[in-house]
Amino acid sequence: MAVREIIRIDEEKCDGCGLCVPACAEGAIQIVNGKARLLDDSYCDGLGACLGECPQDAITIVRRNAVEYDHQAVEKHLATVNRKKPESKSAPVIPAKNQSIHACPGSVAQSLRTRIDSEDSPGVSSHISSQLLNWPVQLHLVPIKAPYFDNSNLLIAADCVPFANADFHNEFLKGKALIIGCPKLDDINHYHRKLTQIFRENNIKSIEAAFMEVPCCFGLVQLVQRALQDSGKEINIEVRKVGIRGDIQAKIPV
Questions:
Q1: I need a surface site. Which of 10, 98, 151, 178 has the fewest CB within 10 A?
Q2: Which fold would CATH assign to domain 110-253?
Q3: What string of pLDDT tens digits covers the 254 residues of the chain?
């Protein structure tokens, strides 16, 4: 036993909607007697991919004495319930006996095809095409192992960058998988652990970190560097700094 981060489910708040179930790649959560339950401490990695799926805010991350996360135990558990750890579009749902569960479509991991540019598509009035290749994009919500990370060029951008730079889709995003986060307002320790696992468990070809010129935003670059170091991987990192007026102020290999 060790003190570590693990999920806590508030049974009074939980209404048994089941949206957290497919969000947990380890199958650690199941609906039992109309309430979400953590089946075993060893199944929970403490990364909290299920947090954003609970409309009742019934799931939190706490620090307490718990057995260590056990990858082998998770694999055996998933095999017993005839479920594989998701490596494609979405995690399957494990409904409780005699209960139907519907997952929120907004949280499903998807690889997206960009729309055809208007110049190649007669009749399309807009001259701007989205270059977004994946969903979701927020670091708190992206799966650790997602199909769009494999063999990808990964862009990790501070939340404000797309709003500041008017040509973000073509200048930064084109041809890249995207993750966004805020180094000031979000949980950096959680982000560090999750990025470390994303780098470790996926074949990522290159990383670009885009941050704002304000001093606190450079924390995103430091976060990416530290997570990459801890992952044991060697991946080229490029850094770009964006001014609050949207100008690209620096492009620096790291």
A1: 98
A2: Rossmann fold (3.40.50)
A3: 889 999 999 999 998 888 888 888 888 999 888 899 999 999 999 887 787 668 888 999 899 999 999 989 998 888 887 655 544 333 444 444 444 334 444 556 676 654 444 444 444 445 678 999 999 999 988 888 888 999 999 999 999 999 999 999 999 999 999 999 998 888 888 899 999 999 999 999 999 999 999 988 999 999 999 999 999 999 999 999 999 999 998 776 56
Distance CA 181, CA 188 (A): 9
Residue type, 95: P
As annotated, the residues of the chain forming the CATH 3.40.50 domain(s) are 110-253
**What residue spans in the chain does CATH classification 3.30.70.20 cover?**
2-104
CA distance 183 to 103: 29
Which residues, 6+ apart, have CB-to-CB distance to 190 below 8 Å?
5, 47, 48, 61, 140
Contact 23, 50 (CB under 8 A): yes
Coil, helix or strand at residue 66: strand
CATH topology of domain 2-104: Alpha-Beta Plaits (3.30.70)
What pTM was estimated for this model as a whole?
A: 0.58
